[in-house]
TrEMBL record:
Record's compositionally biased regions (Basic and acidic residues): 347-371
Family the entry assigns: Belongs to the hexokinase family.
GO biological process entries: glucose metabolic process; glycolytic process; intracellular glucose homeostasis
Chain positions covered by the region annotation Disordered: 29-56, 347-399
EC numbers for this chain: 2.7.1.1
Protein name per the record: hexokinase
Length: 918
């Protein structure tokens, strides 16, 4: 059922209804100033006048009069008035374009369209091919009360559309049309938007408008750079509009602010669309999906559903996305110069934007629509030029014909048209016939059905808005689900304070046992001073790779050779094989390096929590990061290594130092930067060490100097102090690990766990029907299937969403555009939280160091390693940014370790050997 509305004139004074218009068959917005108040007149009365078929027929065949050659076309004199019939005929012939020329125009249009679609050439393209962020045509389930505001050439149309969700065959529509004061299109932007908002208020006052939230779709038929459905920057005005302070601004925001001023607080602008899009959507509601729309009215434009991967600017990856061609500018670079006549050039020169929008319907070029007054006088341009008595009187109507052909030549390259079937009525009479027939000639492989938009753009706009609304509701649900993972600054300050407290507890002799941060002494008392020398073996166990190295420290620098060895899971988690395996790897390495005969001192990076009793004595306190080899916890790992060497009859092993990877990293970076007094790992696990004052280390005797403390901060929170920050997802991840309840801080931050957190969130989103259309994803149920390295890829800046999709496809997940964006958002949320928590921990460390040293400002370097830190595109940036915020009195430099911590272990071994020398 449809109900009519009324036309109002809304100037500075309160508006009064003037005219009532029904929904009519038309090409674009109905012209102003017709109709009367009351119910809608029958559609036929709303059809804009078209030249009669008889009048068109003369030139339509193109045979009766041969077309002038391009050169002839250009040489036609532009005369203020044509007096003889022959002159008129000649002038008209100039406006005729032969089929071959149209074919060439079509090819150029195709080229221009490709240029607009490509990311590389988009900026220079005339045909801009603007993504509309609409990925599907309506499916009929759209439902609800929607407001629509349509900004037209000389009026504003307001509608309330009630979509019933029953296939959208019979939406209820109430509308009103408001004439715009003449000067408003050239005045201040603010006045224009205020006017629109006033219309809306008047409209709502006249209907029984519900007080609950009313979503609004805004039909804004100008060239906009859209970045989402409700974000659209006006690129440039056209059609005689030139309001100040609007170009370059988000018009959704401008309208929303104006609406607020009218105190319509329940009205929300949720979607903006071009009139082409509204038309396409309206036509889609009539059965067959309509995938191309054409506007030939005051201006001309088209849109179509493009294959998503072609729309590089939108990063759409699957399915389709609606693209607005903005083909009105086709030819602005001279592409059409061979078909332009002096009349066209004259019209162009007279227009308010000479040289621009050369493909556009002349009235727009002249700066006003439908023959209304504008900058260049009144009437059609040909009339104004004195060329013709009136376009409608022309035999054959040269101008409209040419326009039709050109539009269709451009429209054709989008081959999708509905299936051949019962042909609906033609596109506004003769104009449509020509479109249809020339399309057939230029694109014989395509079958286009022309469907006049009898309902304007309003209903389509309502559908788009309803879809946007559904998406917004989903976004809200997503936000709620992700909210617990988003930490405020106050949260992070609290984490920092808790870390500081745990550090103090860990250092204190009495409190040590109850601290979750163990603060283990390392017996490393200084960073390298450059005098270290010698040749060493080194082991690096506990990160992604197990490495055996030979390190030569000489005056001219450090040289290293290394091999990576695999530690099979069975060995990692088995019974007693781990150290045998390590010795076998050492022997293999020595053999390869021809070092079997030499007894080299060995530095052992062992990246697990150890109670160190000396530089070469380290009792394993617990396994972390998926290791669980039996018979090791509670044992001195150096001793375990020596015993294994004996078992394997490898007698040339001399272990002189065992260090944690944080310490190895700090020493390694400290060799290059003496300010490096902190070691940080953000990889499979996470941990930090730093130089603490001996006087503060209650667990080791002695007050002088400093000692490196291995914080083992991965266990921070194991005593419950971080419980407020754990989400359900974190708990699910923790429960399934082999060390449930342990390493809780590490499980929020490090590479071994982030992918799992993301996986659990994705599962929850699927369950809530917010992702993958709620379809069950069996593969996503598999533990560890979503690896942290996917986060590093998915979050790469400017990554084509296609790649996100490829990753998801490997997991047998068929992701839509929205799905991919959502997965990206989840990854970003999880990695951001990790970086921020890491920053809070580090802030506690640097602040303590600053206070220890009684400094107003501390300058310190952090040596850092770990796959997550190194590979993730944003982690380091977020970490450093947050750290600056939380510890403003510390200037912290990050030095990435390029050589691994084995080098640092060798340096520690070098110091140990030097100390042992007589
Ligand atoms: C390496 C170090 O570069 O980084 C190791 O040499 C350290 O000692 C590791 O354990 C940490 O990162 P990941 O990502 O391998 O756990
Ligand atoms: C784990 C280990 C710790 C190591 C860190 C980084 O947290 O317990 O010793 O430093 O991972 O590899």
């Amino acid at each position: 059922m449809q109900r009519g509305g009324g036309r109002q004139s809304l100037g500075r004074a309160p508006p009064a209804p003037l005219v009532c218009l029904g929904v009519g068959r038309r090409v674009s917005c109905p012209p102003a100033g017709r109709g009367s108040e009351g119910d809608a007149p029958p559609p036929s009365t709303q059809v804009p006048s078209e030249p009669s078929p008889e009048r068109w027929s003369l030139l339509c065949t193109g045979k009766a009069h041969p077309c002038p050659a391009p050169s002839e076309r250009h040489s036609l004199p532009f005369t203020p008035a044509l007096t003889s019939r022959a002159q008129v005929q000649r002038a008209l012939l100039a406006l005729t374009i032969p089929l071959e020329a149209l074919q060439a125009v079509k090819d150029r249009m195709l080229q221009a369209m490709r240029k607009g679609l490509s990311r590389q050439t988009h900026a220079q393209a005339n045909v801009r091919m603007l993504p509309a962020y609409i990925c599907s045509t309506p499916d009929g389930t759209e439902k609800g009360d929607i407001l629509v505001v349509e900004l037209c050439q000389s009026h504003v149309r307001t509608l309330r559309v009630t979509l019933l969700g029953d296939g959208n065959q019979s939406p209820q529509v109430t509308y009103k049309i408001f004439d715009m004061p003449g000067d408003i299109t050239q005045g201040k932007g603010e006045a224009l938007f205020d006017f629109i908002a006033q219309c809306l208020r008047q409209f709502l006052a006249g209907i029984s408008s519900p007080q609950h939230r009313l979503p609004l779709g805004f039909v804004f038929p100008f060239s906009c750079r859209q970045t989402q459905l409700d974000k659209a920057e006006l690129i440039s005005w056209s059609k005689g509009f030139s309001c100040s302070d609007v170009e370059g601004k988000d018009v959704v925001q401008l309208l929303q602010s104006a609406i607020k001023k009218q105190e319509l607080h329940h009205v929300d602008v949720v979607a903006l669309m071009n009139d082409t899009v509204g038309t396409m959507m309206t036509c889609s509601m009539r059965g067959e999906p309509c995938e191309v729309a054409l506007i030939v009215g005051t201006g001309t434009n088209s849109c179509f559903m493009a294959e998503a991967q072609l729309v590089e600017m939108a990063e759409e990856i699957s399915g389709q996305m609606c693209v607005i061609t903005e083909w009105g500018c086709f030819g602005d670079d001279g592409t059409l110069s061979d078909i332009l006549t002096p009349y066209d050039q004259h019209v162009d020169q007279e227009s308010f934007n000479p040289g621009e929008k050369r493909c556009t319907h002349p009235p727009e070029r002249a700066g006003h629509g439908q023959g209304k007054e504008g900058s260049g006088g009144s009437g059609a341009p040909a009339e104004r030029a004195g060329l013709l008595p009136g376009a409608a009187d022309l035999p054959g109507g040269g101008e409209p014909r040419r326009r039709a052909l050109r539009c269709w030549a451009g429209c054709h390259p989008q081959p999708h048209v509905p299936e051949p079937g019962p042909s609906p009525s033609s596109f506004s009479g003769r104009f449509g016939e020509i479109l249809q027939s020339v399309t057939g000639l230029l694109a014989p492989e395509c079958m286009a059905t022309l469907l006049p938009s009898v309902d304007g753009t309003g209903q389509g706009a309502a559908v788009v808005t309803a879809v946007a609304l559904r998406l917004a509701a989903q976004r809200h649900e997503v936000d709620q689900l992700l909210a617990p993972l988003q930490l405020s600054r106050a949260d992070l300050e609290r984490v920092q304070a808790l870390m500081r407290r745990e550090m103090e507890l860990g250092l204190g002799l009495e409190s040590h046992a109850n601290a979750s941060v163990r603060m283990l002494p390392t017996y490393v008392r200084g960073t390298p001073d450059g005098t270290e020398r010698g040749e060493f073996l080194a082991l690096d166990l506990g990160g992604t790779n197990f490495r055996v190295l030979v390190v030569r420290v000489a005056q001219d620098g450090i040289r290293m050779a290394s091999e990576i060895y695999v530690i099979p899971t069975a060995v990692m988690q088995g019974t007693g094989e781990l150290f045998n395996h390590i010795i076998e790897c050492i022997m293999d390495f020595q053999l390869k390096q021809n070092l079997l005969e030499q007894v080299l001192p060995l530095g052992f990076t062992f990246s697990f929590p150890c109670q160190q009793l000396g530089l070469d004595k380290a009792v394993l306190l617990s396994w972390t990061k998926g290791f669980s080899a039996s018979g090791c916890v509670g044992q001195d790992v150096v001793q375990l290594l020596r015993e294994a060497a004996q078992r394997k009859q490898h007698l040339g092993l001399k272990v002189v130092a065992v260090v944690n990877d944080t310490v190895g990293t700090m020493m390694s970076c400290g060799y290059d930067d003496p300010k490096c007094e902190i070691g940080l790992i953000v990889g499979t696990g996470t941990n930090a060490c730093y130089m603490e004052e001996m006087r503060n280390v209650g667990t080791v005797e002695g007050e002088q100097g400093r000692m490196c403390i291995n914080m083992e901060w991965g266990a921070f929170g194991d005593n419950g102090c971080l419980d407020d920050f754990f989400t359900d997802f974190d708990r699910l991840v923790d429960e399934k690990t082999i060390n449930a309840g342990k390493q809780r801080f590490e499980k929020l931050i490090s590479g071994m766990y982030l992918g799992e957190i993301v996986r659990h969130i994705l599962l929850a989103l699927v369950e809530k029907q917010l992702l993958f259309r709620g379809k069950p994803c069996p593969k996503l149920q598999t533990r560890d299937i979503f690896q942290t390295k996917f986060l590093s890829t998915i979050e790469i800046d400017g990554l084509a969403l296609q790649q996100v999709r490829a990753i998801l496809q490997d997991l047998e997940l068929q992701a839509s555009f929205e799905d991919s964006l959502l997965v990206q958002k989840v990854c970003q949320t999880v990695s951001l939280r990790a970086a921020q928590l890491c920053a809070a921990g580090l802030a506690a460390v640097v602040e303590k160091m600053r206070e220890n040293r009684g400094l107003a400002q501390l300058a310190v370097t952090v040596g850092v390693d770990g796959t997550l830190y190194k590979m993730h595109p944003r982690f380091s940036q977020h970490l450093q940014q947050m750290l600056r915020d939380l510890a403003p009195n510390c200037t912290v430099t990050f030095l990435q370790s390029e050589d691994g911590s084995g080098k640092g272990a060798a340096l520690v071994a070098a110091v140990a050997c030097r100390g042992a020398e007589p």
